[in-house]
User: What shape does this take?
Amino acid sequence: DGGITQSPKYLFRKEGQNVTLSCEQNLNHDAMYWYRQDPGQGLRLIYYSQIVNDFQKGDIAEGYSVSREKKESFPLTVTSAQKNPTAFYLCATRPTLPPYEQYFGPGTRLTVT
Amino acid sequence: DQQVKQNSPSLSVQEGRISILNCDYTNSMFDYFLWYKKYPAEGPTFLISISSIKDKNEDGRFTVFLNKSAKHLSLHIVPSQPGDSAVYFCAAIRTTSGTYKYIFGTGTRLKVLA
Assistant: This one.
């Protein structure tokens, strides 16, 4: 049963704490992505990785960090430097063949108070 | 600079009728366009795609039309069903030198009335 898992579904943190969101995939896709969704906005790209041990900043990378030590895993750390961390976070993968549709995980809702 | 726009935040349609969701874009360099369906608190699910060299693609009840001269994309759902009620996102992909840039619209909330 192939897919993408994100855990936990809901996450609560106090301001000033770092928090790591998990993303695991068994689709055997090289490319993985992290997006953030806020109400009334489209998905905004935080970081992406096209291959193991390599990743690139997206449009809103400030206050976030990632690692890509394994093909299956692409964890996202939301640091205390991120000014507005409360959001819905989505992980996605991309196949190598067109039309290159991204596959999304179920998302993690992070609330920071 | 919003390169992909969905100007209608919401749409209501009677069950059995056609739903038409629209999307406009500004960059003529996009290679593929995608439509996704999203339920609350879940990840988007891929519905249908179209290449920039095509003007129509059909999959069951879903048809996507591309008008390149107008830079306009539309998704037709016929017949609409209550289970189609969700937020629909269009997305455009630009592929350049091995990189893949995805631009998403802000979504249209479709409500299908029974």
